């Protein structure tokens, strides 16, 4: 899709198996269907906001609206790049990179989810590696943060493999219960030391101003 008014739609990140980009309506509809089919066991939630509690159609609509909202609310001072992830010709999940006052802090945050049918294949690590390459190599980040519930070992393993270090914990309320969130931090030196996935970024120069 060639959208002249919004150059981030032309940004693409590729790895040996994956393509990540801001989804057009076709990709976004596929992404909504992945969310509807489920991204975790319904008995628990790995997210601070329990957006997956609804019915499949509600999850699909929430995903569709949320991604469009990230475009509508984008400002160089506060942005979320919500990328659809495609593998083997199918949309399989979502990888976000977000920041506030990035021009000053040079610090971004990652977040993601992957459809249940696509988990356990290393895709989560590969798509996070793509996001980190964009942040560090593409945008010149000094650090990238993330977080995961302490009872979400799969997400914590991905962070560990990519070089994140523990950065304290905090207590959050989810579904009316107390949960512990592990904060994580990755600096440039550790990112460099743990890089294993080849990543290419296309179309970034046309939209650098959007990132502050």
UniProtKB/TrEMBL annotation:
Top-level taxon of origin: Bacteria
**Domain N-acetyltransferase positions:** 18-185
Output this protein's name: GNAT family protein
């Amino acid at each position: 899709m060639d959208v002249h008014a919004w150059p981030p739609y032309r940004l693409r990140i590729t790895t040996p198996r994956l393509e990540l980009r801001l989804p057009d309506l076709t990709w976004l509809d596929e992404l909504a269907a992945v969310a509807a089919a489920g991204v975790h066991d319904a008995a628990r939630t790995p997210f601070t906001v329990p957006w997956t509690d609804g019915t499949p159609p509600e999850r699909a609509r929430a995903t569709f609206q949320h991604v469009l909202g990230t475009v509508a609310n984008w400002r160089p001072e506060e942005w979320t790049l919500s990328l659809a992830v495609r593998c083997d010709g199918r949309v399989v999940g979502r990888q976000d990179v977000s920041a506030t006052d990035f021009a000053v802090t040079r610090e971004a945050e990652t977040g993601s989810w992957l459809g249940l049918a696509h988990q356990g294949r290393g895709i989560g690590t590969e798509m996070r590696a793509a996001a980190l390459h964009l942040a560090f190599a593409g945008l010149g980040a000094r650090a990238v943060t993330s977080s995961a519930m302490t009872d979400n070992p799969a997400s914590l393993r991905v962070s560990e493999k990519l070089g994140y270090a523990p950065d304290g914990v905090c207590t959050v309320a989810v579904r009316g219960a107390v949960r512990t969130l592990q904060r994580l931090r990755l600096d440039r030196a550790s990112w460099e030391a743990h890089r294993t996935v080849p990543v290419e970024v296309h179309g970034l120069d046309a939209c650098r101003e959007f990132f502050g």
